[in-house]
Design a protein that fits this description.
Elements (H helix, E strand, L loop, with lengths): L2 E5 L3 H13 L4 E5 L2 H8 L7 E5 L9 H9 L4 E5 L4 H9 L5 E3 L4 H12 L7 H4 L13 H11 L4 H8 L3 H15 L4 H11 L3
Parallel strand pairs: 1-2, 1-3, 3-4, 4-5
Helix pairs in contact: 7-8, 7-9, 7-10, 8-9, 9-10
């Protein structure tokens, strides 16, 4: 069984991705909540077959973290990101990343990408790399939508968010639907993932 280290500082995103990679991909996944924790993990006794690093987590310092991790391990190191533009992806691949995995990948595509990297290939999403969206997304959320998004990012249920904000649960659902459309999010976990990478929550 291939061993994967997944490093991401957003608990909900990290745990969701790890659970899916384990249950559907059949990989053994260890998680780290930041770059320093990832370094500690790879310096441990057991080796990894692949390291996935979130581009924006603390300690990464953009692509400097990629180089530092590559110096520590003998396995492939790939970058995972929700909002880094194509220019960053191209630089990461030129710097020797084994792949650039947008968090917008469908779950099965994510597993396929990880499998390809483990098989010795470089994963480069051509449609994404050839696009010209080199500017970060500029999403205009209302103050209340941001409040709801913060609650979602904290892993709270709609009922808990409604109680915290002193609004009806149906209102939370409406805000969630609207902000998900603005973010282009498939579900609440994806919304939390994108919000964290965009610095919105």
């Amino acid at each position: 069984m291939s061993r994967v280290l997944l490093a991401d500082d957003h608990d909900l995103v990290r745990d969701t991705l790890a659970a899916y990679l384990q249950s559907e991909g059949g990989f053994e996944v260890e998680v780290a909540g930041g770059f320093d924790a990832a370094l500690e993990a790879v310096r441990g006794a057991r080796g990894f077959d692949l390291v996935l690093l979130d581009y924006r987590m603390p300690g990464m310092e953009a692509l400097a973290g990629l180089a530092r991790m590559q110096a520590e391990v003998r396995c492939p190191v790939a970058i995972l990101s929700g909002t880094a533009p194509p220019g960053v992806a191209r630089r990461a691949l030129r710097a020797g990343a084994a792949g650039f995995l947008p968090k917008t990948l469908a779950p099965r595509a994510l597993i396929a990408a990880v499998s390809r990297i483990l098989g010795g290939e470089i994963y480069a999403p051509q449609d994404f790399l050839e696009s010209d969206q080199d500017a970060e997304a500029d999403v205009a959320l209302t103050a209340r939508e941001r409040d709801v998004l913060t609650g979602v990012s904290d892993g709270k249920s709609n009922k808990e968010i409604a109680r915290d904000l002193d609004i009806q649960e149906v209102t939370v659902k409406l805000h969630l639907k609207t902000l998900s459309r603005k973010l282009g999010a498939r579900n609440r976990t994806h919304a939390a993932m994108l919000a964290r990478d965009m610095g919105l929550a």
